[in-house]
Specification:
With about 180 residues, this protein is an alpha+beta fold. It has a single domain, classed as Nuclear Transport Factor 2, Chain: A (Roll), CATH 3.10.450.50. Helix content is about 25%, strand content about 40%. The protein is built from four helices and six strands. The chain has a six-stranded mixed β-sheet with strand order 2-1-6-5-4-3. Strand 3 and strand 4 form a beta hairpin. Helix 1 runs antiparallel to helix 2. The two termini are about 30 Å apart. It holds the Pfam family Ring_hydroxyl_B. Keywords: Dioxygenase, Oxidoreductase. Belongs to the bacterial ring-hydroxylating dioxygenase beta subunit family. It comes from Rhizorhabdus dicambivorans.
């Protein structure tokens, strides 16, 4: 059986746009890597130069970190640093690490431009730590490039559709 990455690469080599099913499998892989704390493999899903951001709970989808406060606004170098830090005992808020369960649903390809796809999906992420379980929910907006090397994330925006972060107060995991 071919791996997801090989199947994606084969589809791109044939010049095709990935199907929704292939995109879903890619997003499910991303979620599984986060739940399994395989952060280096998760980072490998991103193209160099990619971004990852989480605006505040009241922000609009098109919010800009240049003029609004974001909870997370990582360029690729900062994303690499985040992964390195989360894997160390010095990451006090995540050591020992939280247990998470990322659920992805309602995956839609909302636009295609050349080899780039704009994908919107809903998420629920459960986080358990120190006998407390938190729930984060919202929607992701991924820009994904389909190339000869398979699918790569160009940008990921996680929009928290919660009215506030209470009782959590923070986002110390990757949603």
């Amino acid at each position: 059986m071919a791996t997801i990455e090989r199947a994606d690469a084969a589809a791109q080599a044939q010049g095709g746009i990935p199907t929704r099913s292939q995109i879903e499998d890619f997003l499910y892989l991303e979620a599984a890597l986060l739940d399994e704390w395989k952060l280096d493999e998760w980072l490998a899903l991103f193209a160099e130069g990619a971004t990852y951001d989480v605006p505040t709970t009241r922000a609009e989808d098109d919010a800009d970190s240049a003029d609004q406060l974001f909870l997370v606004a990582d360029d690729y170098a900062r994303l690499q640093h985040r992964v390195r830090r989360l894997k160390k005992p010095g990451a006090h808020s995540e050591w020992p690490r939280s247990r998470t369960a990322h659920s992805i649903t309602n995956v839609r390809i909302v636009a295609v431009e050349g080899d780039e796809l704009l994908v919107r999906s809903l998420f629920i992420t459960y986080r358990a730590k120190n006998d407390v379980t938190d729930c984060y929910f919202g929607h992701h907006i991924h820009r994904i490039r389909a190339g000869a090397d398979g699918l790569k994330i160009l940008s990921k925006r996680s929009m928290l559709d919660m009215s506030s972060l209470r009782p959590h107060g923070r986002v110390s995991i990757i949603v």
